Amino acid sequence: MAKRLDIKDLNLHYGKFHAVEDVTLQVQARSVTSFIGPSGCGKSTVLRALNRMHEVIAGARVDGKVLLDGEDIYAPSVDPVQVRRTIGMVFQRANPFPTMSIRDNVVAGLKLTGEKNKKKLDEITERSLRSANLWEEVKDRLHKPGGSLSGGQQQRLCIARATAVQPDVLLMDEPCSALDPISTLAIEDLIAELKKDYTIVIVTHNMQQAARVSDQTAFFNLRAVGEPGQLVEIEETGKLFSNPNQKATEDYISGRFG
Amino acid sequence: MTDSTKPEQRSEGTGTAGALRGVPEEAPGPENPTPESPSDKSVVRLGDRIFRSVATGSGIFVIATIAAIGIFLLIRAIPSLQANEVSFLFSREWQTGDPSNLRFGILDLAWITVASSLVALILAMPIACGIALFLTQYAPRVLARPFAYLVDLLAAVPSVVYGLWGALVLAPVISPFAVWLNNNLGWIPIFADGNVPAGSGANVFTAGIVLAVMILPIITGVTREVFARTPTAHIEGALALGATKWEVVRTTVWPFGRNGFIGGSMLGLGRALGETVALTIILSYTYTPPNYSIFDAGATFASRIALGSAEFNNNLSVGAYIAAGLVLFIVTFAVNALARWIESSSGKGKE
Amino acid sequence: MRTDTADVEQPAADPAFQYLSLGRKLKNNAATVVFTAAFLIAVVPLLWVLVTLLQRGLPPLLNADWWNHSFYGLLPSDFGGGIYHALVGTIEQALVCALFSVPLGVTVGIFLIEYGQNSRLAKTATFMVDILSGLPSIVAGLFIYALWITTFGFDRSGFAVSLSLVLLMLPLVVRTTETMLRIVPDELREASYALGVPKWKTILKVVLPTALSGIVTGVMLGLARIMGETAPLLILVGYSRAINFNLFEGPMASLPLTVYTARKTSTEAGEYRMWGAALTLVLLIMLINLLATLISKFFAVKTK
């Protein structure tokens, strides 16, 4: 199921502001790629462009190509809704739907797009919650509201919700930044497991986290405030952190910058 | 999964998504139609297209409604205006019973309307401002909300009840004061004798006070909201300089919220100009023309229409009332538009 | 000895803080008094009106007949009779008004928040909603008269009243919907989009349910507001002392119209009924206000 992503000459704008310039990189299937870099370097913007969430913001614009196993997700005949179905996303803040129960949150993507078979939905609920390592904690209160869980549980609920629609790629936008260290660890373990089935791209502020979870790491930077963000280099994670190709990367990871 | 068959189509890089979301100045190319158009070349689902059209249609409907109000009132007023034997703007007569001899003018209606609204505004503005300051700056935090609710309750009382209260309860209580004003300040034209005795209570003076009570929650509501938005940094800055509470209010809260207060007052004015039933009950109708005093009685635009509803039996007579309604519509439209404009510029000037 | 100490401590005797000048202190206190007084002044008419209503309007309400009888067949001097006919009219007219104005107003609110963004159409629509909210109720009545009765040729009826109330209710529903949609966090919309849910379904199944209790509260407050409207009724429907369930035919009573009409019966019994009807109207409005507050308290969706 997992698919490869090729990003070619990606340029992103918010109105007249040029947010990201000429990003080209590849993400292998069944691997974890982290995006790191200082605030405002455009790493989250690039991530959002990978499932056409960028364009949800008024005035946002995309140039360049994003190929999913060779097919351009920005091709004119492609329905953005279909793209998002195929490439799921987990957000910085856990955002379970407050009006829905835990179970309904998990299967929200399926129910809202027409799946009605109760048995199938129940199966998917259990499978997704198990794969998010949440099943044991919530199996007795599936009909409680999603907001009744702790922050870390909510974030795992959101991961379960994202995997329930069986996407090919999972994008994670700083999924642990609002969590305590124990919940963070739980999510990181989960990422390692999900890697078997999904292609994962994760944006993180935390370099140790990037080093722990990812196979390759992309470093983004910007020349100055107001300038567009750029991809400095993308490299196998071990190499990027031990022996980066660029001076800017070395400065950043050694704490001399950002 | 993505069902694209021609991935190369986007090679010019003109940003499908950008065109869909609309960044007009940077979306060139013939294949990019106007932004926000749902028929853009990118795929938009049928459900989305329908839903968007319905929503947009409802927005258009609201605009069309206002236009329809103006147009229908105008269409119905024109034949009567043409049949009118006297000047519509300057006549003081109102004889509409006989469709073959329509004699109607709005001069006196305009006076009663404006006079009662102005009395209301003069009374309500300072009090509303004081209440707003009290609720936002002075009242204890815990009590501010229930207190504000109490003021809002004034808006929940229907105008027909205010009318009864004004005519039957308030008027007898305040008429000695009206007589006193009339006797002692009668040399000032607006306190001179009106067309009914000052002691009758069925005059602009009583009407203005009742209107003031009715518009108080409107002005207070808007003003309170604006005052509450005063940036904390401004207030703390003033406090750190050793300002007293009053000085904080004068130097930060008031300059910040002044336009909101004025805008809110205009909204109150709009409401007062159009108020109908309370004034129909309070003001006694008299055929003696007014004397340009606040002790006049008579009818406002709105109350004249309400009084005339009994003779709504032929289109020409009704048209006369509709003409008066049209004037009221235009005036309140202008006042409300001005109010919103002033209100929206609040807090911007003094940043 | 003592004088010595005083001398030594002379410098320290200066106050630690600068004193406020008397003038500043007076002004500050005066301002506090004035603003507090302004609030108290506003409470006076509120209490005065409510006390008057209770004093004069309570006796008829304590009679059981008041709630299930009409004024049908009463002589001007007869005490007794009931408000049932007017309650029926008010509630029917308000419900039919809600039937039109709620779907329309919610849709307009959705357009303004979810679709309009900053388009010129949305700005114009917002402005027109503002204008509509300042529309004098008598003008709303005249417009429906000119449209529904003069142009389309229908008779005066309770339904015509409902139509005019729609104009007055619509801006209240739109405002409420706008406010409630605005506080639904964008994160929920994005979460839904990211699951591959189309925008329209996101609005219907995620955004609206989250905003629902707030919208319901606003709608009820709006209903309470328009139930007290009298002006359009004078033009659009005749008063009936009997019970009429039919919105489309014949004169129909309602609470405000009953108050207004009963005022013309200048007998003691007429006044008795007038105050009774007025208190009933205010109680109904307060009851709906209270219900609305309870709904917003107990059914609010927590969105952090």
UniProtKB/TrEMBL annotation, chain A:
Q: Where in the cell is it found?
A: Cell inner membrane
Q: Which residues form the ABC transporter domain?
A: 5-247
- Provide the GO biological process annotations: phosphate ion transmembrane transport
Role, per record: Part of the ABC transporter complex PstSACB involved in phosphate import. Responsible for energy coupling to the transport system.
Q: Membrane topology for this entry?
A: Peripheral membrane protein
Instruction: Keyword check for Nucleotide-binding, yes or no.
Output: yes
Provide the organism lineage as a comma list.
Bacteria, Bacillati, Actinomycetota, Actinomycetes, Actinomycetes incertae sedis
Against PANTHER family, the record matches this protein to:
ABC TRANSPORTER I FAMILY MEMBER 17 (PTHR43423)
Q: What is this protein called?
A: Phosphate ABC transporter ATP-binding protein (PhoT family)
SMART domains xrefs: AAA
Q: Which domain of life is it from?
A: Bacteria
Q: Which Gene3D superfamilies match?
A: P-loop containing nucleotide triphosphate hydrolases (3.40.50.300)
Q: Which GO terms describe its molecular function?
A: ATP binding; ATP hydrolysis activity; phosphate transmembrane transporter activity
Q: Which InterPro entries match?
A: AAA+_ATPase, ABC_transporter-like_ATP-bd, ABC_transporter-like_CS, P-loop_NTPase, PstB-like
Q: Which UniProt keywords apply?
A: ATP-binding, Cell membrane, Membrane, Nucleotide-binding, Phosphate transport, Translocase, Transport
List cellular component terms (GO): plasma membrane
TrEMBL record, chain B:
Which positions are tagged coiled coil?
Answer: none
**Which GO molecular function terms does the record list?**
phosphate transmembrane transporter activity
ABC transmembrane type-1 domain: from which residue to which, for each copy? 110-339
Give the GO cellular component terms, alphabetically.
plasma membrane
**Primary localisation category:** membrane
Gene3D superfamilies named in the record: MetI-like
**Keyword set includes Lipid biosynthesis:** no
Membrane listed as a keyword = yes
What spans are recorded as compositionally biased (Basic and acidic residues)? 1-11
Write the record's keywords in alphabetical order, separated by commas: Cell membrane, Membrane, Phosphate transport, Transmembrane, Transmembrane helix, Transport
As for subcellular location, the record says: Cell membrane
Mention one GO biological process in which this protein takes part, according to its record. phosphate ion transport
Residues spanning the membrane? 54-78, 109-135, 147-180, 200-219, 268-287, 318-339
Q: Name one Pfam family in it.
A: BPD_transp_1
- Report the membrane topology from the UniProt record: Multi-pass membrane protein
Using the UniProt annotation, give all residue ranges assigned to the region (Disordered): 1-41
InterPro entries documented for this protein: MetI-like, MetI-like_sf, Phosphate_PstC, Phosphate_Transport_Permease
PANTHER family in alphabetical order: PHOSPHATE TRANSPORT SYSTEM PERMEASE PROTEIN PST (PTHR30425), PHOSPHATE TRANSPORT SYSTEM PERMEASE PROTEIN PSTC (PTHR30425:SF1)
Family to which this protein belongs: Belongs to the binding-protein-dependent transport system permease family. CysTW subfamily.
What is the protein's known function?
A: Part of the binding-protein-dependent transport system for phosphate; probably responsible for the translocation of the substrate across the membrane.
Tell me what this protein is called: Phosphate transport system permease protein
Give the organism, scientific name.
Halopolyspora algeriensis
TrEMBL record, chain C:
Identify one Gene Ontology CC term for this UniProt entry.
Answer: plasma membrane
Coiled coil regions, renumbered to chain: none
Q: What InterPro entries does the record point to?
A: MetI-like, MetI-like_sf, Phosphate_PstA, Phosphate_transprt_permease
Per the record, membrane topology reads:
Multi-pass membrane protein
Residues of the ABC transmembrane type-1 domain: 87-296
GO terms, molecular function: phosphate transmembrane transporter activity
Family (UniProt):
Belongs to the binding-protein-dependent transport system permease family. CysTW subfamily.
Q: What functional role does this protein have?
A: Part of the binding-protein-dependent transport system for phosphate; probably responsible for the translocation of the substrate across the membrane.
Spell out the NCBIfam families in the cross-references. Answer: 3a0107s02c (TIGR00974)
What protein name applies here? Phosphate transport system permease protein PstA
UniProt source species: Halopolyspora algeriensis
